[in-house]
Amino acid sequence: MTTNAKILVIDDDTAITELMGMLLRTFGFEVITTNIGAEGIKLARETNPNVILLDLMMPDLDGWQVCKEIRKTSAVPILILSAINDPRMVASVLDVGADDFLVKPVPSGVLVANIKKLIRRNTGALDMSRLKKTTFTQTNQALPS
Asked: What is the CATH number of the domain that holds 44?
């Protein structure tokens, strides 16, 4: 039996998590969302996602703290989505264990392609053919920052 990829979205902005959930489900992903960093750490342990999408600037625990905590128990790919476009910030979060970094707003097609890339790198067990293909018309809409 094959399973669809499970994506955990951790972002303090509820509009972003709702939008990401709707968008990623249209591509065939199972999506779990939270707006609290500490809950994201707990969900990462309990739900065993294939990829985590993580915002950096959050009020309770920031993305660096969340990433460090997840790395203590998991090697799940972590993709940072942030409005911060500073090379030092990017380097610092990659140094604490993130796998990739995209600057918001990011075109939906680019986001989905990066998620699929991380899944391919991490495991060959998922049936990627069950996920919908990224098409040009779907790549034009940028996610808000």
From this structure: 3.40.50.2300
